[in-house]
Structures are given as structure tokens and as C-alpha cells.
Write a structure and sequence with these properties.
Layout (H helix, E strand, L loop, with lengths): L5 H26 L3 H5 L9 H20 L31 H21 L12 H23 L22 E4 L2 E5 L15 E5 L2 E4 L5 H9 L11 H9 L8 E4 L2 E6 L2 E4 L11 H10 L7 H9 E2 L4 E2 L46 E8 L19 E8 L15 E4 L8 E2 L3 E3 L1
Parallel strand pairs: 10-13
Antiparallel strand pairs: 1-4, 2-3, 4-14, 5-6, 6-7, 8-9, 10-11, 11-12
Helix pairs in contact: 1-5, 3-4, 3-5
Length: 436
């Protein structure tokens, strides 16, 4: 590193560390399977792993080498192949994609040039460069695709190829099932988080009525009660499109669950195991979460309610970066970064609770909210419309909080995820709320 400015030096180090961590994870997800598995499509919902690998390099080249450095395209003939909007996922196996070794060489060459660029680029002077935003955006992009590739690993059939220790998290059973969140205004979103993405901005004031929210995410045990009570057979709990979905596809439980000899089992990264009752439920769609909440006499929290429960400190009136404050996540605070390949049991990470006492808001499982994915007042697309703006509308529902598959660089109290309400392959769970 050549810069002498301490803040620039720290930014470069942070960017280099984030990019390196992402690439280590990418390598682990792609080197752990055969070339045949890399090029296969394990589900029409997902790209072949080799597409994600080269797409990571292509986006890095596009934004850092072409947009920031102003260079010519290294491989102009492949750019259309790795444009996520050009070809639907189901069609990508038919494209003339780079093979595994060529994809590895390409992404490695891009990364080498990017590190050279990072050494000498002033991290200021434009919206892309200020605070190292473009480098942070690319680190987040790669980690988001690493999560996508981990989903593909879960969908993949065959012997286990990934390993991680089970969570041995600090545990303290919550004393109360739900927490009261007071009425009043709070600051939602951010205008100061340097690597926040466009849909998190700008910070603005929201007002909520008082509400109750679950202390921990809904567990497998609680969800099993819904199943046992005929929840999947009773249309009154379901939104009409959700009822149609479960009837058409004969859905009777979360994805990857099945019953054998009266016992519920699940498949998890190639391992078959009994469904652990004390873990947050995983791999449920928005429709399933909504149906459970109705059955329980409750509802899903709105996105604003979720963020207020996660960030608002009634003692100071301030919204923090995370439920526990402004400090970066650690292994004692949240289950993030693919350290484990499952959620921790409900009640884990008491030190990561919000000021109001709500647990596990960051990590473990993405949490469906009641809200459509919409722009905040004053939203401005940056640096391209296709990151957020083209997805705004009632078709997509917001998820919050991240999962065990999310890296800390792409997870914070303001981070917004979204997906179609039918999606079940994602690492999604939920918690419920009710009016006062």
C-alpha cells in the first residue's frame, strides 16, 4: 500500500480484506465439487455454479476496471453471457459459457488487476470512489453470489461436500415470548453508512403504532404445531395465490422436509437428519410465513416495524447500525459468514439482542416481512437501475436480517433483501407480530 493518508490507508485495507474474504469463500464453494457439478444445473431456479463464478469476475471487471479505471473490456465477447438480465437462469446452461478452469483464470486475472488499481486509486472524488464504495459494492456482490451458490449446494443431490462446525453459540433462553415496541418516530434507512446500497437510502423518519414482536424467530417446533393442526389443508389461513401454489405443487411442509415412519426429517447439504425443534424454521415461502402467522392469530411485521425493533434505542432515540450497537458483528453476536451451515437454536446470542430485548435479528435466517419492496422517499438509483429500481413493486416482498449464509459485509440493520413470495430455496424464516 502506497498511500500515506491514514483514512485512505484504512479504506484500502478494508476493501482488500473484504475482496479477499469473498474470493476465499468463492473458491471453497467452487473447488469443492467436480467440473461436472460446476457445469450442471442443479435446479432451474439457479444458474450453474460455473456461471456464477465467471459472472463474479465479469461484474468486477465491469465496475472496477471499466467504469472506475476506464479500461477496455478484457473479453468483450463474453459480456452478454454474464449479464444477469440478458438470459434467464433456466437458459444459462445452453450458453457457450467459460469452462471451469477458464472461468477461474479469468476471475483471477481480473482480481490481480483490481488489486493493482486499489493500490493507486484515490478513494475520493466521485460517488463511485468516495469511501471506496465501488470496491465495497463488488465485495458485497461477490458475497451475495456466494450465498446464491450455497443455495445451489443445498439443492444439489449427492454426497456432502461442504463441512462446518455446528453452532456452539452463547445461549440464554428468553424470558418472554414477545417484546413490546413503543409507538413513535424512529430513523429508518441510512445516509451515512459508506457501503450501503441505493435501496437503503436515504435515512428518513418513520412513525409506528405500538406493537408486539416475537423475541426469537418462529421455531421448527412451533411450525410443526401448525402442520399438525392441518395448516396446509385449511384454505382460510392462506392468501389466494399461496393456496393455489401449495395445491398445485402438493406442498405440505417446508422445502427439504419429509416424513418417514412418523418422524419429520430434513435434507441439509447432503445430510439427512431429524428436524431440530429448537432451531428457527428455514426454507419457507412468504405465503407459508403469512399462513402460519394467521393461524397463530398474529401477522408478519412490516419492514418498518422490523427495523425499529432491530435498531431503535428508546433510551437515546437513536437508530444504531446493528441491534447491539455500532460495532461490527462477531461470533458472539450473530451467526453470519457461513461459519456454520445451519441456524443456531432460538435464544442464542443474547449479547446480540436489541435494546428492547429482541434476539437473533441479524444472522441465522432471513426474515420475511409483510411489506412490498418499494423505494424510500428521496430514493436515487445508484450506480445502476438494475440493482434495485427494476424490482420495486408488489411482486416482491422484503426480507430482513440476513442468514447464516450472509457475510457481514453484506448485512447490517438497514440492509434490504427481496424476493418473490413463492421462493422457498432461499435461507428464509420469519417472526410474527401483533397489534397492541
Amino acid at each position: 500500500m502506497t498511500t500515506s493518508h491514514p483514512s485512505r490507508e484504512a479504506l484500502r485495507e478494508r476493501a482488500a480484506a473484504a475482496l479477499t474474504a469473498a474470493r476465499v469463500r468463492t473458491a471453497g464453494l467452487t473447488d469443492s465439487v467436480s467440473d461436472a457439478d460446476l457445469t450442471a444445473q442443479h435446479s432451474p431456479l439457479m444458474s450453474p455454479l460455473v456461471w456464477d463464478l465467471a459472472h463474479i469476475g465479469n461484474q468486477e471487471e465491469l465496475w472496477l476496471l471499466r467504469n472506475v479505471a476506464g479500461r477496455e473490456s478484457m473479453r468483450p465477447e463474453i459480456n452478454p453471457l454474464y449479464d444477469a438480465f440478458e438470459h434467464p437462469r433456466a437458459e444459462r446452461p445452453k450458453l457457450p459459457l467459460l469452462g471451469p478452469e477458464e472461468a477461474r483464470r479469468y476471475t483471477a486475472e481480473v482480481r490481480g488487476r483490481v488489486f493493482d488499481l486499489l493500490e493507486r486509486t484515490p478513494l475520493e472524488g466521485s460517488a463511485l470512489l468516495d469511501d471506496g464504495f465501488a470496491f465495497g459494492m463488488i465485495a458485497q456482490h461477490e458475497q451475495q453470489h456466494d450465498e446464491t451458490m450455497l443455495i445451489t449446494h443445498q439443492l444439489r443431490r449427492g454426497a456432502p461436500v461442504l463441512a462446518a462446525p455446528d453452532p456452539d453459540a452463547p445461549f440464554d433462553p428468553p424470558l418472554v415470548a414477545e417484546v413490546l415496541v413503543p409507538e413513535g418516530p424512529f430513523t429508518m434507512g441510512t445516509s451515512t453508512e459508506p457501503w450501503s446500497l441505493d435501496n437503503e437510502r436515504p435515512a428518513h423518519v418513520r412513525d409506528t403504532a405500538p406493537f408486539w414482536i416475537d423475541t426469537v424467530p418462529v421455531t421448527n417446533a412451533a411450525y410443526l404445531a401448525f402442520i399438525a393442526d392441518g395448516g396446509y389443508r385449511e384454505p382460510r389461513w392462506w392468501a389466494a395465490p399461496g393456496w393455489q401454489q401449495i395445491r398445485e405443487h402438493s406442498i405440505e411442509a417446508p422445502l427439504f422436509w419429509y416424513q418417514e415412519a412418523g418422524q419429520w426429517l430434513r435434507r441439509r447439504f447432503g445430510v439427512t437428519e431429524p428436524v431440530p425443534e429448537d432451531e428457527p424454521v428455514l426454507h419457507v415461502s412468504w405465503y407459508e410465513a403469512d399462513a402460519y402467522a394467521r393461524w397463530a392469530g398474529r401477522r408478519l411485521p412490516t419492514e418498518a416495524e422490523w427495523e425499529k425493533a432491530a435498531r431503535f434505542d428508546p433510551a437515546t432515540g437513536r437508530s444504531a447500525r446493528y441491534p447491539w450497537g455500532d460495532a461490527e458483528p462477531t461470533a458472539a453476536l450473530a451467526n453470519l459468514g457461513q461459519r456454520h451451515l445451519r441456524p443456531a437454536r432460538a435464544g442464542s446470542y443474547p449479547a446480540g439482542a436489541s435494546p428492547l430485548g429482541v434476539r437473533q435479528l441479524i444472522g441465522d435466517v432471513w426474515e420475511w416481512t409483510a411489506s412490498d419492496f418499494l423505494p424510500y422517499p428521496g430514493f436515487r438509483a445508484f450506480p445502476y437501475r438494475e440493482y434495485s429500481e427494476v424490482f420495486f413493486g408488489p411482486e416482491h416482498k422484503v426480507l430482513r436480517g440476513g442468514s447464516f449464509a450472509v457475510d457481514p459485509v453484506a448485512c447490517r440493520g438497514t440492509f434490504r433483501n427481496w424476493d418473490l413470495p413463492v421462493r422457498r430455496q432461499i435461507f428464509s424464516g420469519f417472526r410474527t407480530a401483533r397489534d397492541v
